[in-house]
């Protein structure tokens, strides 16, 4: 009994496991049940409701050939487990007399059978923990209690795994939303800062060069005043779509203000001339007409400035240089318009 309790304690102590580790959790329990019940086979099954089948996931067999092999799939209506659940009788030492209508049990030659349901977090039966033998064997109350304890442990582990998986999914969704601009779907300032930290770390570690492009949508306030804020929001969505279409796979686009965007160009092979060409391409894709429902917004273009990462740069210093370069271009564009007026 001391060995059994030690085995049970070791199983319970497997903290930090997830659903992918369930086999490591189950197999020691099957070994424990085999010792306690003295049955030829102990096994864990899954009930596939949509396929109306029951599958043996893990089994431990003591005979020369497996009585209940892993991977065995049986029509659910033909199983002893279904009959046990329906009648509430979870144990029998005479399978043929009690449930002789089961073809699977008859073909396997089962005489002794015991089971306990496995439920998910919603209380739905999703599987069973079972023991079976060709020979007639008396299963003691102690063994039945141990079967119940093991079933509850597996049930708890599966429910815990599901809850952990859901928690991870929710955390990932929360993290994604925390780094995403809700209107345009591109990164927000927080998301940009995360990408900048990674890019700066890569630059300091291996010299991977990148560029930051600051974009300001000239005339956006006038668009809002003329066409309304709803049209302005949809204009911003169109702007992001056009920018994303012009960017490369590894480039990053973020919205950092109402009408301000930052692009990270991550390509250490690019020269300053090539980056200038990319900037011109980004400028060109933004110029033109934007169709919003039944009206068209003509747009003359944005101001852009860029800078290359330098040793010792912080995110703030890099963005400030790009912002300064953008405002220098904005002033030049304004002076050019004034001169031509």
Automatic annotation (TrEMBL):
Pfam families: GAF, GGDEF. Residues 208-341 form the GGDEF domain. This is Diguanylate cyclase. SMART domains: GAF (SM00065), GGDEF (SM00267). It comes from Aliidiomarina sanyensis. InterPro entries: DGC-Regulatory_Protein, GAF, GAF-like_dom_sf, GGDEF_dom, Nucleotide_cyclase, Rev_trsase/Diguanyl_cyclase. It comes from the Bacteria. NCBIfam families: GGDEF.
